[in-house]
# Entry
Amino acid sequence: MINNILVTGGAGFIGANFIRMLLNECPGLNVVNLDLLTYAGNLSSLSDCAGKPGYVFVHGDIKDYNTVSGTIKKYGIEGVINFAAESHVDRSISGPGIFIETNVTGTLNLLQCAKECKIKRFMQISTDEVYGSLGSEGMFTEASLIKPNSPYSASKAAADHLVHAFHHTFGMDTVITRCSNNYGPYQFPEKMIPLCINNARHDKPIPVYGDGLQIRDWLYVYDHCSAIWAVFRKASAGEVFNVGGCNEKSNLELVKSILKILGKPESLISFVKDRPGHDRRYAIDASRIMKTFDWKPSVTFEEGIEKTVKWYLANQDWLDMVTSGDYRKYYEQMYSGRSPL
Ligand code: NAD
Ligand code: DAU
# Structure
């Protein structure tokens, strides 16, 4: 039984939703959130969790040995779940360096600290993008080749290999999940779905890359979080699980469905130059996690996307704040003038 967990990258999109789920559903668990608070991490995504029993925030870098090992020792950490990453494919094309530093060097430092501190379980939150791109047929299984195409996916694949190597060479207890595209509350509006909602609310054009017929397999973020928790608690050491919702949509279909919910015209769609090396199609075969742990998504895509659009409309101040880059006001309110930055 693991009671003291270090979540890295918990101020980002999926990490914040995961911590909220743990604090709401697992009383007695102690959760330490270590996050560097880059442009993508924001404590306002966890404002309802600050001050809850069992929750601590540490402002720090996963690449920093002293911070990571000091935090593990100080809080008696038994399990590490690594969400921290540079996560946006377009940014990895314009500047790959930081993706290697955070996603590869950062993961290596976490593994070394976890090994030295004899952590009971290390979990890596990976992505379906490590498998590369599909044609019109087939799905990624856990046995698919690792064939990443972008600097982002290459850095995530390298991290997966390091996690496997620490299991194989040092006998560390590690598990990996590889999930498809997530959507839901608190996603930074550079990613397709919140970008579309954010632009549409201001009647601004929605950039659709190339012909818009690339396919992604969408999963509501809470359902990814419940899958992660099932794998963390129940998988055997060294296992890898794919996670996905069987919701393949072309980007054009996706944007049209969001505009319909918002009551905005399709004339906002603007076709722009394609992403270099753009992966054409992702589709996850999630049958293994479904059969092994009886896991399944809690919402259909139609329910999830409706909830998501409504959440962003009800939280336009969050969208305004994270896009303004001015977080100081928020921290000062939350920490009565004692900003953690
Ligand atoms: P995100 O970009 O929203 O959040 C990343 C978080 O990591 C931020 O809070 C950021 O401040 C933090 N961070 C970055 N560098 C750090 C460092 N050096 N030290 C400590 N913290 C640091 O990302 P996300 O969409 O929440 O993704 C979380 C994880 O899940 C990533 O590893 C990503 O590869 C993976 N993933 C994402 C998706 C998706 O659809 N978003 C799907 C599958 C897997
Ligand atoms: O598959 C999982 C991955 O999903 C995660 O590992 C990544 O961290 C996450 O960012 C996401 O990657 P994508 O590149 O698929 O997500 P993004 O939201 O950037 O784009 C979704 C699709 O929409 C993709 O085909 C590119 C397209 N797109 C994106 C943007 C930002 C556009 O057409 N226009 C845009 O402006």
Summary: The first helix runs from residue 13 to 25.
